[in-house]
Amino acid sequence: MDVQWLLIIHGLLTLLVVVSFLCGQWPIFEGTPIQRIHYFLTFGAYDYFLRFVGFVFGEKAINAILSVEYFCCDRPNPVLQIIYLAIIGITYYFIAKSSFSYIPGYYLSGFHSFADPGTVKAENVSQYQSAYPYDNIIYTEKECSTCKIPKPARSKHCSICNRCVARFDHHCGWMNNCIGERNTRYFMAFLLWHLFLCLYGIVALGFVLAGRLKELRVVYILTVYYGIENSFRKLAPHVVQWLLGSYNTQILLMVFLAVVSLLLAGFFGYHANLCRTNTTTNETVKWQDHMNWQRKVNEARASAAALKASINGMSSERKPPDSKWKTFFRRSPLEDAGAVVKNNIYDKGILHNVWECHGSSCSSDLSSLLDREVDSVYYWSCSSITVEVTSTNAGCGSATTSSGEGAIAGEEWGLVGREFWVVLGLDWG
């Protein structure tokens, strides 16, 4: 039983590390040990390592490590592909060494067939200029400062590949390529086939072990010679203990493949949901930043309105205070600031979205999308501290903060002045 407890503890620690590494930056884990573990795994350990190297070997050693970091993390390189091949090769070696001698066996025959569909680069972005309209929220018409070409909506310049990519999702180190307009379907196939491959390995190893149990009559020996009750609850601990002692390599491989399968299933499900809503990973981050900024705007307006109301109240006749119950049930001005809504104009329905994600949008009919009006759209530039508003509502316009006056969605905010931008964490221009 000691071995089983060690295996359980090992699995729980592995799960804690994986969850902390992948999810520790989520707001739900803020201030928890998971966030601290995430920081240590992603920044802290490396920072301590650099300090140790600098203390022992000096500045030259740190510069050498930073050069390696630049090559591995900021430039196109085959490092992760080499690691991938090493993982696949080592796993295949141990499976072949420990389990292939039992194939074909009692349950498993000797056939298998899996294929990788391959990948395609996303290049020549000029043809995508008319594919998507600018929503003037997270995408505005501008030029790429590096490539010096017009920047289509939904595109992004990848600093690693040093090129602009249409409908940019992310840079995948495992494929050593950007994931964008033309190869999203290949990336999804990459995840799906590897998920199936890992699941196939789990099932194959399970059949191998089940076959060995059957061929060696382990259950019969345990029930007849050792007098153990023939029930799953009674037999399972003894069977697991026997498998760990006799076929520990296969058990560890099954655990490893199960963990990898969960990760692949999670990534595939996440990107499948992005395809469902016609969103990319890059756009998810942009929307989160915009919604956080808009929430601060709403809170600043509510604070200014509350301040103005309190000033007006001080100058008017003193009114009797509200009852405790009325004060208790009254909503805070910040709660009345208004909900921040994500307005994704590229979401055209699940069928169209999935078809577009797995095909090319350049040949799609976007006339209906181009005719859509954008209501209450905000975008800003921190360098010039400019807020511009586009809306179908009357009374809306644009304003700069240099004068501290202007109109946003028909509401005057000149009263807020400099404090408005202090709340947003921006410098007064």
Textual characterization of the structure:
This is S-acyltransferase. It is a multi-pass membrane protein. It comes from Citrus x changshan-huyou. GO terms for molecular function: protein-cysteine S-palmitoyltransferase activity. One of its GO terms (biological process) is protein targeting to membrane. The chain is mostly helical and 429 residues long. Among the domains are: 1-74, no CATH class; 281-310 and 328-343 and 373-424, no CATH class. Helix content is 53%, strand content 8%. It has 13 helices and 11 strands. It has helices spanning 2-23, 33-57, 59-74, 79-99, 184-215, 218-224, 232-246, 248-277, 281-315, 324-329, 350-357, 367-370, 418-424; strands at 142-143, 150-151, 156-158, 163-165, 170-172, 177-179, 377-381, 386-390, 398-400, 407-408, 411-412. The strands form 5 sheets. The chain has a 3-stranded antiparallel beta sheet with strand order 7-8-9, with no helix packed on it. It has a two-stranded antiparallel sheet with strand order 1-2. A hairpin with a 2-residue loop joins strand 10 and strand 11 (411-412). Helix 1 crosses helix 2 (33-57), helix 2 (33-57) packs across helix 3 (59-74) and helix 5 (184-215) packs antiparallel against helix 8. The longest helix has 35 residues, at 281-315. The protein is elongated, with a radius of gyration of 30 Å. Residues 109-123, 331-338 and 363-429 have low confidence and may be disordered.
